[in-house]
Amino acid sequence: MPELPEVEALATFLRERAVGHAIARVDVLAISALKTYDPPITSLGGLSVTGVARHGKFLDLDIDGLHLVIHLARAGWLRWRDEIPTKPVRPGGKNPLALRVQLDDGSGFDLTEAGTKKGLAVYLVRDPADVPGVASLGPDPLAESFTTDSLAAILNGRRTQIKGLLRDQKIIAGIGNAYSDEVLHVAKMSPFKIASSFTEEDVTTLYTAIQTTLKDAVERSRGLEAQDLKGEKKTGLRVHGRTGQKCPVCGDTIREVSFADSSLQYCPTCQTGGKPLADRRMSRLLK
Prior knowledge:
- The structure is a single chain.
- The chain has 287 residues and is α+β, with helices and mostly antiparallel strands.
- The protein has two domains: 132 residues, N-terminal domain of MutM-like DNA repair proteins, CATH 3.20.190; 139 residues, Helicase, Ruva Protein, domain 3 (Orthogonal Bundle), CATH 1.10.8.
- It has nine helices and ten strands.
- The strands form three sheets. The chain has a four-stranded antiparallel β-sheet, with no helix packed on it. The protein has a four-stranded antiparallel β-sheet with strand order 2-3-4-8, covered by helices on one side.
- The longest helix is centred in the last third of the chain and has 22 residues.
- The chain is elongated, with a radius of gyration of 20 Å.
């Protein structure tokens, strides 16, 4: 799933390529992806892209005051084309194309989604806050207003494991499953550590890990073509998705805890005092 660094890179990419161009055509191939009907998507024709912003994991194209807000979900992606094919694409079947935007110079982008579980969401609204997911977002961890005091206030009194807290978009916007693993590895903290147990020193350590991890990922993505961002994310990860490999810091074997629809990865030596975390799902399978 694209997270804050990748969506920030896509926003930067589109500012350079799309801003200043008018919308020539919008084709909706997957009706289920379009979550709004007023204003109609056809109203974008002839309007110009005036800005591109990011809200957590949401991408926001300002089109003469209307906002095309995109959430790529787990398997969605934005694919830029220097030249959009003139031949119309037929909806249905196994075609992963959900929506196509063509600009006045013939360039544009496709929104695609792989797999059978569809989560890609596109909204056309007058205000980004009209999108429920945007309206409920917590603070952005890269905003100047997000400080160690902000983080301390978020953690205070919460009887929640830190891994889940970092992933909760209503608490902190933009961090998902992958970068929460990376942040906690940098901070040398167990993903099961309870938020309310954090000392002042713990808060500072976690805050620094959030900032360095996200800013490093954003910097690595800077200037890349949209199609190269997925590969950059994968190669830049140290523990997430690397079960069974060696930790790049200490050399211990990276381990995994599985859940119903996701998993987390961590280094026992770096994060849990050398003790493997209980994987309840695997324990049940072994009984």
